[in-house]
What does this fold into?
Amino acid sequence: MTVTVSPRHSAAASVPAGFVGTWYGHGRVLTVRASGTVAVDFRTYVNCTATITTGCDRTKGSTISDGGHVSGTVTRVINSTTVMVTLTETTAPSQLAEGTYRLGHDLGHHALALFAGGWNQAPFCGPDAPSGYCGA
It folds into this structure.
């Protein structure tokens, strides 16, 4: 089953249904919507200060608010397990820059992998992924 992408997004084709949902890893969350929009929220491990106010994590009590926020769209479907996403907005470009990247669906581990620099080894897991596969 595929989900058709709305014409208001720049996606080139239908998003394979297996990508749609919220995927988790240690200190990071990836959301792929049926509309074709993509969002990544992640810890930057940089504390906000008086001079560092964007792309940094905020701590209030024992709660940490992620400083990394990236958004974009699925722009091309290669096949049912590989799509291209174009990220167009980022608060932490040194950690996840704007650009077009491959997003793969690892069916065997029920996980997604974003092939973007240092993110290559940081999978995002679905509910059926093996325990510990996507980090602590």
Q: What stands out?
A: The chain has a mean pLDDT of 89.
